[in-house]
Amino acid sequence: MDPLLVTQALNVLYEVVTLAVIVLGLAIVFGLLGVMNLAHGEFIALGAYVAYVCQSHGLPYLAAVPAAIAACALLALPVERFLIRPLYDRPFDTLLATWGLSLFMRKAIEIGFGGGYKSLKIPVSDSVLVLGTPFPAYRLLLMALCAALIAALLLWYRRSVAGARVKAMVGNRELAQAVGIRTDRLARDTFVVGLCFAGLAGVMVAPLVSVQPYMGLDYVLRSFFVLVVGGLGSPLGLLSGAAAIGGVESAMSALVDRTAGYSTVLLIAIFFLWRRPHGIFGRS
Amino acid sequence: MTTSLARRKFLIASAAGTALIGAPAFIRNASAAKDFKIGMFYAIAGPAANLFGPTQKACAELAVEQINARGGILGRRVQLLFANGDAAVADATKSAVRMLLEDKVDFFLGSHNSAVREALVATIKARVPYVYTPIYEGGECSPNTYVIADTPRQQMETVLPWLHKKAGYKSVYLIGNDYVWPQVTNKYAKGIFKKLGVSVLGEEYVPLGAPNKFEEAVTRIKGAGPGLVLITLVGGDNVNFNRTFAGFGLDKNILRVSSLLEENTLLGIGAESSNGLYGCMSYYSSVDTPAHRAFKTAYRKKYGDKAPILGLIGVDTYAGVKFVEAVVTKAKANAAAKVKSAANGITFASATGTMTMRNRHVDKDMYLAECKGTEFQIVETFSNVKSGQTCA
Amino acid sequence: MNTWVFDFEDVTGGYGGSVVVRGLTGAVAAGQALCVLGRNGVGKSTLLRLLHGFLPLARGSVRFAGRDLAGLDPARRTALGVSFAPQERIVFDDLTVRENLTLMRPGHPLAALAPYFARFPRLAERLGQHAGTLSGGERKLLSLLRVLAEDRPVALLDEPSEGVQSESVRQMATLIGERKAAGAAFVIVEQNLELVEAVADRYLILDQGRTVQAGDRSTLRRAELVAHLRV
């Protein structure tokens, strides 16, 4: 097989699964709680900076995983209690509030770490032969981890009692309360978990991108496109959205160039907003 | 009227006895009736602000401090007025009008992109001299406008032949952001490649300001297999491209030249991705000259440990302010005709030594740097390289 | 003095600022059913929602086993021992029948529900199906089954027989009777005379948010009921 074709195919796959993980946290808080979190990208940045701190203190890279989860949870708890909870069912206000939060977090990161770039060492720097052509090992590892993470979350959501309770809360909040589910706590936990996933995504991509206070902005627009195409509240939709946006963009970039990738993605997003506002699998 | 005048005098008197730094802006304006005002546009807020803004401001203020310590320009205390140059063209234009009409600035200094420069030139209409400092594509010959910047000729005519002689690359791939500076730079570089007999295997541009990923481009480059990649990407794109490039292992066989590779960008690229990466600019913080040592000492003394990282875009505002001092002192005025004749051939201080202005551009020493980890190692110095610009 | 397992006094309240029910008082002892009767729109559902904390009381009090429930949200009241079956959106459409029944009792064997399934075999056949695919009557059965499976001392049921076939209503009445015999108490909003006559120990007839008549089984007259239930 043409080695370049293999590499480009892997690039497309890489883009799809990493994008899915990047959107995961946003999809959780938006799809399940109806909270449009404009600070999603900043929690990704927070995860990346935690990874940077861990690495610059000589800790193994895996140490960044619990550290980032802890940092995101510590921040997400008061944010949920004082910013999000009073604004449930007021989407526009939530939008404004999380936008303010994103500004605040960007500034805080800039004050703490400076405005310049940070670079993280890639934890696994070798290449692995895939069908006879070398591909960076960390990217392969990342793809596997992302796929495993998504699969685990899907399985948890579909099979576990906690997943069923979340589904119950989302589908019928009043009945959920009637059967004894403390929906305020469950919503809080769901929000925190969503933001922890954002932080986790930050840890995962940090060694591959430019880490700087405004990096969160890089992820927000594309994440929203994924939700537009995939629709809300359906894990299958998330995957198909990531495949449509990430896959098409990557494939067009490989076949033509980046500009063609962006234009195509923009056209897809416009088409969905126009013809299928609830996404591929979304319900009205 | 009388009351307001009396009040004004009272304010001036009290301002003189007050620490000026802490005084509110209106008092400072009132006391600064005879100050020499420089209207400075730099990246206060916008995509480039967090990277370049702090250094641009710090370097310009260091120059002003040094000039004022020696008595100012023509005996007038120098004062910087700031406006955002990383803004939309319309906003920058508004700031320029305000500075012209209300603040009545004596000189403009700009460190921003070419779109804003063109708008400022059209707004100022040569009523006040204007010096433009950051690296750019060349071609600015508007009246009463002066340029400190590195030009494509100064960058390309040095590094490309030198590297060809050293490494003998036979082919090249060009990648840059999609705007005028990379395209003009590449056009200039292709002329050099033609003379060297180097074939261009590919040329691609990615959108400016988009969160670009480079896996596909790097794979394309891998397939093309050039000896050299000429990179005219800026900021985060430059970081991401180089990290992806090395991540895919291409750094082992392919040399890279990056046109705008300054200290912050190299920190982002990181030590493990900078192997075989070269740049050629008029400034690196590792340049070792007596003037630069003195500059760095003064800079550290003024700003301490938290000083913004030094880099080309920042230090050129220092040279810009020093140019203003030199040219106005020599012309004894800021009138267009006098400044123009004083400017030609004038020598003024830069962070690393001196620069000489000819044809309203600067001939300067260029440094060829090879990346060693996150440090620039100067491997060659080219003295007094011509800008290649011939403004009348 | 009777010991009530669930009682309420002077219950007054409604939606937002408007008062829908005023000064309602009632009580049930263990093993009893209190039926709340009246035409559509007289405030029966509002009363149940006030009793379970979905709506705030403007005045009055609600007690479970003598404990004042003021300030407790619905989930806490349920956890204390009061089950609730609403009139609308009565099951989790996105969950399977099995999940609907075991949501709050993970690991609890469905076998314990075998006697119930024996009466409603159609549900037993649809355990793996999403509840959203059930018919209206089947959902009502599932809703009742969920409450019975929870096995709490008190259950508040809002029109359990609405849209249910008469044969199944009889089965419902039998089940409620069995649970009463086992000591459970019910507050049931109902329009179906057959079910009311079968299970009611006490009753409360509402009109325009106020009590027009209250009493126990001995004073329950079919003719009066019919007059009050005519829509």
Describe the fold and architecture.
The complex is a heterotrimer of chains A (284), B (392) and C (231). Chain A is an all-alpha fold and 284 residues long. Chain A contains eleven helices and two strands, in the order ααααββααααααα. Chain A has helices spanning 3-33, 40-56, 64-84, 91-113, 137-159, 161-171, 173-178, 183-205, 217-230, 235-255, 258-275; strands spanning 127-130, 133-136. Chain A has a two-stranded antiparallel ribbon with strand order 1-2. The longest helix of chain A has 31 residues, at 3-33. The radius of gyration of chain A is 19 Å and the shape is globular. Chain B has 13 helices and 14 strands. In chain B, helix 3 (49-69) packs parallel to helix 12, helix 6 runs parallel beside helix 7 and helix 9 runs parallel beside helix 10 (263-269). The radius of gyration of chain B is 22 Å and the shape is globular. Chain C is an alpha/beta fold. In chain C, helix 7 runs parallel beside helix 8. Classes of the chains: A mainly alpha (284), B alpha/beta (392), C alpha/beta (231). Chains A and B meet through helix 1, strand 2, helix 9, helix 10 and helix 11 of A and helix 3, strand 7, helix 8, helix 9 and helix 10 of B.
Give a quick rundown of the structure.
Chain B has 392 residues and is of the alpha/beta class. Chain B has helices spanning 2-16, 25-31, 49-69, 89-103, 114-124, 152-167, 180-196, 215-224, 235-247, 263-269, 290-303, 312-331, 336-343; strands at 36-42, 78-84, 107-110, 130-132, 145-147, 171-177, 199-206, 228-232, 255-258, 277-281, 347-349, 354-358, 361-372, 375-385.
